[in-house]
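Moderator note: this is an archived Q&A kept for reference. The question asked for a predicted structure of one protein chain; the sequence and the answer are reproduced below.
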Amino acid sequence: MDVRLLNISALHQAYVSGDLSVEAVVSAYLDVITRKDEKLGAFLEVFGSAAIKRAEELDQRLRNGEKPNGLFGVPVALKDNLCLAGTKTTAASKILANYVAPYTATAVEKLLASGAVVLGKTNMDEFAMGSSTENSSFQKTKNPWDTQRVPGGSSGGSAAAVASLETLVALGSDTGGSIRQPASFCGVVGFKPTYGRVSRHGLIALASSLDQIGPFARNVEDAFRVYATIAGPDPYDPTTVTAPIFDAETLQKGFKNLKVGILKDAQIEGMDESVAKNIKEAIRLMKNSGVEVVELSIPRARLSLAVYYLIVTSEVSSNLARYDGIRYGLTEKFKASENFLDFTTRVRAKGFGAETQRRILLGTFTLSKGYADRYYRQALQLKSVITQDFAKAFKNVDVIFGPTAPTVAFKLGEKFEDPLTMYLSDIFTDPANIANLPAVSLPIGFAHQLPVGGQFMGPSFREDLVFQAAAAFEKISGITDLIAPAA
């Protein structure tokens, strides 16, 4: 029996029956990482001995009669912008290369309290800026379906680790699609909750008004289990809400009473025809299953990409100002000829990669005197208008379905020197962040022998509708628990 093919429910049943120990499961995943990750580059650091020790402790609890629930004995990987006390948290940046977190992120604490076993930290685009995980300062992660292609980004390491069976589930962060786009490229499920559902305490910030933590899994049920574990209010994050989490029984409702909206505007120049074909086939499958499908028009949704990059670069400029080479990570000595400004300029130029520097400069410009009103504040106003547009649309439908990304995973280096083309990878995911909607990407088919992802979006704080639709589609399509060739 390959323990890596078991979902969380099956894993718990095996623990109860005594067919498996937590140590055996954790060891199986660690063995795969040892054998395969040098080629894939999904992990930046692996906590082998700590994971085995944790597994032994959990096995003792089983012997003492404890019944597994939650995420008990579940191997999990963490994107390296999530703090775990006593371990490096670099955000894949040289400027934080030696930073050891003194505390643990609230979402990670909830995983640990639920019995999860952390296997290690996964690679990402530096400070979560990117759509390919090629902007990491340390290594490039490969797509498990084709190692000549990118896994998506910025949470590419987490997506690749789940797709390659190097971990059962993982956490990522999503500011404009950084969970859903790599989920699409790697053939896994990726979920972004409504902003405020999951605490951001302990998440290294990209854009504080948009960042949200969410799960990767190989099926909808496992993604829900992780989401339900990490969601909830947190006194350390005043933006979190106290709204109740729905029951798992929602996943069994199918498409009953759900009206699905399709955006007529979800076509862009350069969209892969085979991706569009898969979307049409998914819609046909839903219609044949009796689902009521309604066409919608939200033309201003297409402006989300421009709004996103104005807001993000502005907040990046502010958030990353703290990294001065003195308090965090990269440490350089003052030169006798330098003043403080000269020193911090030299260290930041050395510590930040090209994409990070680009966004800091753009954000500094959009916040500068005479331009903040023209760019940043207008972007905030348009964000509010787009949010209202979606709110009106959701008066007529329960969820909205469409493509997650305009293409399948592209080749390494293909878009690296063309940032504008790279930014278009997030054109279908940005609206959910701008309008503050929960959204999930799940596999819906294949094109060019690579997975294609479809996305369900729902009204704010209606994660139940999004998960219901995703679970229903997973059931009627039969596309679930995909195994990438590199696995």
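Archived answer notes: The mean pLDDT is 96.
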